[in-house]
Write a structure and sequence with these properties.
InterPro entries: TRIM45/56/19-like, Znf-RING_euk, Znf_B-box, Znf_RING, Znf_RING/FYVE/PHD, Znf_RING_CS. It holds the Pfam family zf-RING_UBOX. Keywords: Metal-binding, Zinc, Zinc-finger. GO terms for molecular function: zinc ion binding. It is a single chain. The chain is mainly alpha-helical. Among the domains are: about 1-80, Herpes Virus-1; about 85-165, Double Stranded RNA Binding Domain; about 170-210, no CATH class. About 55% of the residues lie in helices and about 10% in strands. The protein has helices at about 35-45, 45-50, 75-80, 85-95, 100-105, 125-135, 145-150, 150-165, 185-190, 200-210, 215-305; strands at about 25, 30-35, 55, 65, 115, 120-125, 140-145, 175, 180-185, 200. It has a three-stranded antiparallel sheet. A three-stranded antiparallel sheet has the order 9-8-10. The N and C termini lie far apart (about 125 Å).
Length: about 300
């Protein structure tokens, strides 16, 4: 399945089907995809992703691992968390006359004037004032209805930023396996309330600490230190051995070169000696032939004179 020209939309539409989000699943890279579209995308590449153990975001191609890898691949889409902020904003976008959620809970209809990106609620003017006065909520990011209508992408991005926000001064109370992040109680309530794989640090950590044996830790540390020292000694020994091997090979090459030069010298001497012998034999043969020629000439002259 090709997703080369995925539309980024206006922030409220799925980049694959281009329709308004229906159960928006959020990947670790913070991109959102409809549950059904994500499942279809995973199924289309099931063989490849089943071997990898993770999928790639169809928008940015960043790896995205399901929270439980040993589940069948047909269930992977359900293992990615729902984007609660985005899902809560969808009805507000669909309704031009958005009503205050706080007032609606009291069966009072009041036109909304702003939206809290942290609480994920639309609020009227009075509720916004109260929201900004409370110690627990005065630092929340509030966007006006006009900004919500005019720049939905900014609101979506604000939600992404808040999703990964750490709250200074708060104790870490849980760890979310779905998003691989630790957080405080505020983080849990705001961003991870629907996540299915959370660890309660208060209950889990003491149990883990009770299982820790200080003597075993010290022994493990000493073992690690010994291994490091052994590794460093082996490296030093390897360096020394390498230098020795290089010297041995260099000496061997020098010896081979000396023997080759000696063989070449002997060959050269042998060739020169052979040359002298051949020259001497050829010279003696020529002298003998000349001597015979002179003798024949004298014999011919003597015969001529006698006639």
């Amino acid at each position: 399945m090709a997703y080369a020209n995925i539309d980024k939309g206006d922030g409220f539409n799925c980049p694959i089907c281009l329709c308004q989000f229906n159960i928006p699943r959020q990947l670790p890279c913070a991109h959102n995809i409809c549950h059904s579209c994500l499942q279809s995308y995973i199924t289309a590449e099931a063989t490849k992703y089943n071997e990898l153990g993770y999928i790639k975001c169809p928008i940015c191609m960043q790896p995205a691992s399901p929270s439980v890898k040993d589940r069948p691949i047909r269930e992977w889409a359900s293992l990615f968390p729902v984007n609660a902020l985005l899902e809560s904003m969808l009805p507000a976008k669909a309704n031009a006359n958005r009503m205050c959620d706080s007032c609606s809970s009291e069966n009072v209809s009041t036109l909304a004037e702003g939206f809290c990106a942290v609480c994920k609620e639309a609020m009227c003017t009075d509720c916004l004032k109260f929201h900004r006065r409370q110690k627990m909520t005065k630092s929340h990011a509030i966007v006006s209805v006009d900004e919500f209508d005019g720049n939905p992408q900014n609101v979506i991005q604000l939600g992404r930023d808040l999703f990964f926000l750490q709250h200074e001064g708060e104790y870490v109370k849980f760890y979310c396996k779905d998003h691989k992040v630790a957080g405080c109680g505020t983080c849990l309530f705001r961003n991870h309330n629907i996540c299915s794989n959370k660890i309660d640090m208060k209950n889990e950590v003491p149990a883990l600490l009770r299982e820790i044996n200080p003597d075993e830790i010290i022994s493990d540390m000493e073992n690690i230190e010994f291994r490091l020292q052994t590794f460093m000694a082996i490296n030093d020994s390897n360096i020394n051995n390498t230098e020795s091997d290089v010297n041995t090979i260099t000496d061997l090459i020098s010896e081979i070169r000396r023997k080759i030069n000696s063989l070449l010298d002997d060959l050269e001497k042998g060739l020169k000696t052979e040359e002298k012998i051949i020259y001497k034999e050829e010279n003696n043969r020529k002298q003998e032939e000349n001597h015979k020629s002179v003798s024949v000439m004298h014999a011919v002259e003597n015969v001529a004179c006698s006639v």
